[in-house]
Amino acid sequence: QVQLVESGGGSVQAGGSLRLSCQASGHIASNACMAWFRQAPGQAREGVTTIRDNGDTTYVDSVKGRFTISRDNAKNTLYLQMNSLKPEDTAMYYCAAAAGSYCPSREQGWYWGHGTQVTVSS
Predict the structure, then answer these.
(1) Strands 46-51 and 57-59: what pairing?
(2) According to the model, what pLDDT value does residue 107 have?
(3) Residues 108-116: what's their mean pLDDT?
(4) In sequence order, which residues have a C-beta less than 8 Å from that of residue 22 and are 6 or more positions away?
């Protein structure tokens, strides 16, 4: 069993910043690929960013240069620093963990948190 608990969401004005955290516990591999996804109302869930245990990261084009993913393996915590937020970043943000170092291409390969809401007003 893997538990993922997100925190740090909230409401900000455009141009502001938020830092999301995800506390992982349970039977999670120490080298697990970790990720942040988001889902806006009426839209499909999309992958935002991933990070592997070796530090390699990927970002969706819309957040490149604004968002930074990081992990603290000693604390079993994943972070997402979000700067220069835009109204189109408004969504429920989900932390996800893979079973191993490989980052799944499908949603079925991830463990999920319950999400934290981010709302950006113009």
Answers:
(1) antiparallel
(2) 82
(3) 95
(4) 4, 5, 6, 7, 34, 36, 77, 78, 79, 80, 95, 113
